[in-house]
Amino acid sequence: MQAKIKELKTLFESHLQKAKTLAEVENLRVEFIGKKGHVTSLLGELRLVANEQKREMGKKINELKQFVEDALFVQKQFLEQETIVKVISSAKKIDITMPTGQVFGSIHAVTSVAKEVEDVFVSIGFIVEDGPEVVTEYENFEAVNVPKDHPARDMQDTFWLENGQVLKTHTSASQNRILKKYADNLAKGEDIRVIFPGRCFRNENVDASHENTFFQLEGMMVGKDISVANLIYFMKGMLEGVFKKDINVRLRPGFFPFVEPGFELDASCPFCEGKGCSVCKHSGWIELCPCGMIHPEVLKMGGIDTNNYRGFAFGLGLTRLVMLKYGLKEIRILNSGNLKFLKQTGTK
Ligand code: PHE
Fold first, then answer.
1. What pLDDT score was predicted for residue 90?
2. Cα(195) to centroid(ligand 1), Å
3. Fewer Cβ atoms within 10 Å of its own Cβ: the N or the C terminal residue of the chain?
4. pTM of this prediction?
């Protein structure tokens, strides 16, 4: 019996050395001290041992059992530790004390001012529409009452594409599509209230105050009794919303083929409150927004019954408004991608 105990111990030790995984350790446990394990069955054989040796043998077997248990426990701990070390050392190392170097973007000044103007209009029932930048000649010109050979085409140096389409020279290029889209509202007794910001392009020589790429924000309201009074009311409300102060407006005659009558809308200078400063060139007024009553021909082409409905349109120079708001003297900075500028004027 004693020899057997020794033998088992040696056998266990040699097995243990080879047990390199937790599963192998578990197998060893079952093999030696499980219900039918070697050590366990040795305890069973104890009844065959002579009485005077029983006590001692019993003690030895129990010692062996304890030895196996302890050794397995130690080996298990070791293997678990080893796995943790392996996982940690193979993981990507991050030094949490290093600066991240991450550059966060911000919302461009044009986008945030557009959003401000949109919010004002949305709060009074306007829908915001979008439009493509490549449009047909019809949309950009004919549909807004600028037929071929009309001198007004020369006012807008156009980028023509090889397929005859154009880069839209003004947001008015969306008027026709939008009028058609909402014409049915009128029959339902609703009016049409839409604004449509957009990027516009003109083949211009670029300098501090001229860009070939700029933003407008156009609006239209069409309904039963729409008049110039409505136009003034909405423009004033919008400007007060943007500048967050009382603003006076005045209209001067202006010519655009798609409005009749047409106006240039001036706002009292929000910077000096009309007293005169460098922004308003000491006139107290800034020219901000061409507008007018939509020409009946334009309404007709948009599918509107001109016997019953009239409307106004305005073409806010969004880029100009941004320049005013931020006091920018150089228009080119807006499209420059200059990081210092973006950081200074951008909002989160
Ligand atoms: N589309 C005109 C322009 O780009 C602006 C405008 C819009 C004028 C709507 C009147 C009404 O200059």
1. 87
2. 13
3. C
4. 0.71
